[in-house]
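One thing: mind reviewing this one?
=====
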Amino acid sequence: MQAEFYKFLTWPFHRALSHFGHTEITRVSHWLFVAACLAISAPQGAVAVPAGSVESNSIITEMLEISGITQAVRDMPEQMQDVLNGDPKIQSLRPEQRAAIQSAFAQAYSPAAMTEVIKQALRKNFDEVRFKQFVELHHQPLMRKFIALEAAAETAQGRADMQAYLAQLPGHPPTQERLALVQRLDQVTHASAAVINIQIAIVRAITGTAAMLQPNELRPSKEQLDAFLEQLDKQLRASLTSATATSLQQSYLYAYRGVSDAELKQYVDGYDNPAIQWCVFLIEQGLQAALTEASINAVRSSNEALTKKEALTKKPGDNI
């Protein structure tokens, strides 16, 4: 692969990263991911409600809704379109090529398709007791209070107020106790990893599409592209870990600024529970599977659409 191609591939990440701010990661990432390194063993037996029953599907649907996953998946097509629309390489394409890529990504990141992949992961590991415990946790008054605070932080006014809050934060730092609590919240949920995983998923999808837009002499083979993506993955995780954790913790400090340390500790303790962690881990696995499948489908569909468009419209000397 040519050096020029490696240089070109940096654009999707920078665009994807710029799309995420403090508030975008607060609602979903605060609870979403528990790392696989927790080594939680899959629960055995005790499935009173059949995994494919109407009741089990209702429980799973509520889990995704109250946890914020449903909204996060619903927002994915718009987020992907924002990334595509902001890239000069995509915008420099012919209108029919640009439309083909946008259509391919819209279909690949369809909320219905992604939600079904996540639900399948939960059905395969359905555990009535733990799943209901997850739902009941989010119906507790304390949890509802924190969810309301997170929702307020996501309003237009909340976002403006957050910027003012962050501006004064260096002169009015949080106490060590408060900082330790938000750091622990990140640790028990692996929220920073959630943000990084989503960013890298976007990078992989758009980078795969970007590869197809190169002239033949710069276009990498599948093996070259896969190797590059693996290297990029490691580099991004290493470089983003500290900055992402800091950004996320600042979001927590703002959103929960009006609650006491005692309440925040109760909130953190609610997630620091093996049953809840197991549910969160399953949702993480489902979302990761959905993102992976969407990425593969987006690249494949883009390639098919561009190849078809090229065959129909290519003129001598044209090069997509």
